[in-house]
Amino acid sequence: MMLPLLILWLMAGGIIAWLAEKVNASLSKWIAFLALAAAFGMTLAWWMQMNTSGGLNVWLMQYDTPWIPDFGIHFHLALDGLSLLMLTLTMFLGLAAVLTSWHEIEYRVGFFYFNILWVLAGITGVFLTMDLFLFYFFWEVMLIPMFFLIIIWGHENRRYAAYKFFIFTQASGLLMLLAIVGLYFVHGIASGTYTFDYFQLLNTQFSPQTGRLLMLGFLAAFIVKLPVVPFHSWLPDAHSEAPTAGSVILAGLLLKTGAYGLIRFVIPLFPVAAAEFAPWGMALGVLGILYGAVLAFAQTDLKRLVAYTSVSHMGFVMLGVFAFNSLALQGVVMQMITHGISTGALFILAGSLYERIHTRDINRMGGFWTQVPFMGTIGMVFAMASLGLPGLGNFVAEFLTLLGAWKATHILTILAAVGLVAATAYSLRIVQKVFLGRSEQKFTLPDLSFREKMILVPLVIVIVWLGVYPQPVMNTVKEVITLTLNPTDIKPTTPRISDKDIQKGGTHDRK
Amino acid sequence: MTANDFLSIVPLFILTSTAILIMFSISVKRNHKVIYAITLASLLADFVYLMVYMRGTSHSIEPLFIIDGLGVFYIGLILITSLIVAMMSYAYFEQREERKEEYYILLILGTLGASTLVISKHFVSLFLGLEILSVALYSMIAYQRKRERSDEAGIKYLILAAFSSAFLLFGMALVYLVTGTMAFEGIARHLTANDGLSFMLFAGLGLMIVGVGFKLSLVPFHMWAADVYEGAPVPVTAFIATVSKGGVVGLLIRFFVTLNGHQYPTLVLIFTVIAITSMFTGNILALRQNNVKRLLAYSSIAHMGYLLVAFIAGNALGTEAVTFYLVSYFITTLGAFGILAMLSDTEHDAEATEDYRGLFWRRPWTAATFTAMLLSLAGIPLTAGFVGKFYIIAAGVNMQEWLLVVMLAVNSVIGLYYYIRIIAIMFEQQTKAETSNTRLNPAIYIVSSVTLAILTVSLIWLGVFPSGLMGIIKSLL
Fold this sequence. Notes:
The structure holds two protein chains of two kinds.
Chain A (H helix, E strand, L loop, with lengths): L1 H19 L4 H28 L8 E8 L4 E7 L1 H20 L8 H20 L3 H10 L1 H11 L4 H34 L6 H4 L6 H18 L8 H8 L2 H26 L1 H28 L3 H20 L4 H32 L15 H15 L5 H16 L1 H25 L15 H19 L2 H15 L13 H6 L7
Helix pairs in contact in A: 1-2, 1-4, 2-3, 2-4, 3-4, 3-11, 3-14, 3-18, 3-19, 4-5, 4-6, 4-11, 5-7, 6-7, 7-9, 7-10, 9-11, 10-11, 10-13, 11-12, 11-13, 11-14, 11-19, 12-13, 12-17, 13-14, 13-16, 13-17, 14-15, 14-16, 14-18, 14-19, 15-17, 15-18, 16-17, 16-18
Chain B lengths: L2 H6 L1 H19 L3 H22 L5 E3 L3 E3 L1 H26 L6 H19 L3 H19 L8 H30 L4 H11 L4 H17 L8 H8 L2 H26 L5 H23 L4 H22 L2 H28 L15 H4 L1 H15 L5 H15 L3 H26 L14 H23 L2 H10 L1
Antiparallel strand pairs in B: 1-2
């Protein structure tokens, strides 16, 4: 019962924030902030409870009720370690996104926070749902608020970017819908029960040809979302034109839905077809790593640069997922989290620079360190995270991925490791161009305000924590990963945390 | 005629007598309000009668009519749609100078024609229904004949519709020549007895497809759509887009199912080609359209193409999908034209995309409603349009029509572009100062708003809880 409540909570928060604009614009901010803070507390409480219990039973909570019985569609949500991590990340970055927009967004404030909360609600739904129809439903629901965020509050070229984003994701999503419906009928004809339920659709028997086609449908949606070169061209536009909060959510969360989809659906549902595709998948991943890195190095627009680093980092996800071993998948999950945090932080920094100097062109920046040492230090930390410095989370993620990938392929792993060198080049270029060097223009910049510190310092703490002691994260997903690689064992077992425990544990107090 | 016969076509009698009643009422005194009230009351009474007394009716009146679940459902749909069209007509015509009262007679007659179509099982009743509908439409389209483009649209429709009726008649004649009967069942018997289509029969059916395709504005019989949509008064456009097409779809389903047309590959091939070209033509022509009425016209061409995908699938799931899609399409179309009517002032219809610039910041509720309608047309979740599209895809995939289904997906993406373009325009920052359009009598305004609110709520309701309607459709068909 708590799971649908979480989604409803965010949606209701969005509506209230919108309505609150009539009373007072800053009331909307506070409502959005408090709604997310409560949700974040909720997910943290679940995580605490999870660590106390154990075993191979991965499902922490479930909620299942018929929705459209004529088609065998259920409103079925379930929480396991992977979903839980993703939810925690969602709420954490959601909070950062709200805080970073505090002064940036000046008009239509209520509607802005409405969209933020609804996009987060959609993402939450995507991470929780165990019914494929419902999955597609949430997959689409998260697009529209994002579209509005870009087209209303974006930068100059926002229209083009928003259309491109929407059409790319819709087109690939429709292919997934075809595949979902195809799977539904294939399973229905074979077994006699027509259902969209994830657990029943696992282990569907089909001919290799059917399996390949259906998998490609799913893959289309996830590959575009991730994004994998050559389907990435929407990303630099959308990321650079979106407002800061939009970029944070796009890079930190929306891309992760693609990675999540690969782990949750593509591999367990189509183990054979996915194994066939694996060499291609890893090759595409490596292509993305190198291509993204080269293009990132060539950018002059700071946000665009960060966007291309995402393309490069997401290549590791592709490489790791299709390496098919638990080490690589551990790395992928780490990468999803650390990339969300480090790239989110870089976008926040780019946003706060833009607020101060009204340009994103790094050729016009330089020598800011003396004026804004605090911001410079934080920029340095995240640039180092991005290049994979040991001691920071990204290193763990990429190292594990490479270790796992080595078992699958040597040549591609070596090429991917070369990508790390390229990452050093572009990351250092950010620091060099923005904070060091000589200042050409006369800008006067105030250093980070208290609010900005409140956003960035926790991000630094988390990225260091993940770099030094990643074990809790790994423990959380260990069993999920084992099951992903052996999908025959995935069963909807009784959830470990019952509703009763929740009411004792996490508090969900209304404002 | 037995009492049972009489009872089962009471809905048609109510419509007929309403038309006569309005005529008398006009001859006594012209009063827009009274006529409006009579129209609404009779449509509502008719609908209620249908709901209360005619559920589960299965009765045929030899040789012309068959009143069964399908017929009752489609009549109900047509009545409720006409009711909504009538509701949005008052505000629209009240601000215009011409005589308004006769319009309602035509509206009722058009409804009568469409209702006749969906229960006919004989060429005579088919043609009768189609002509009642068409003749009413000729005058409705050209109703405001003093306005520019209105008579052009009327004459265009008149000539083309007459032409297509001629095709239809010729086709019927050929079919009659071969089979010796004009009843659908008789033709079906002939087909099963003779195993396959002779050339003559095929030609006859082909010519009939021309007639039907014209009414549904399917490519290549779509040329009239944009001009007529643009020239006709907004409520009439809504009527053409919904009632007129719904009636023909109901007829087509009955005719095709009775004939078991799906077993003839040539017929299926013809419909497949028509469906694909309609989807592409409609969507591509709409891409760069700056007139909202014309845009909706092209989009309706594409939507009829989508509908055909489920129609071609043909089994029970296909028929359900067609019906569900039609309901969601009706709601959406009525909503969209309702917005158009609401924003139109005495001089111009709000049809240029420029009229919508920044609408969200001026009139948020109106714009939000229009956004919901457009998203439904684009098939985005949370709206009825999504469930409808899902239903169609399910029907298509079930029958393994991969070509059609993939074409539908491709076209949805093309279509998305022009729907979100309008949405983007509505959400743009406003540049010019607000032009205060003179509001009508608040009571009228409230009626329009309530109508739109009902449409929006049902749109979202069907998008989130579609099982209710699915159950009704399943039980009736």
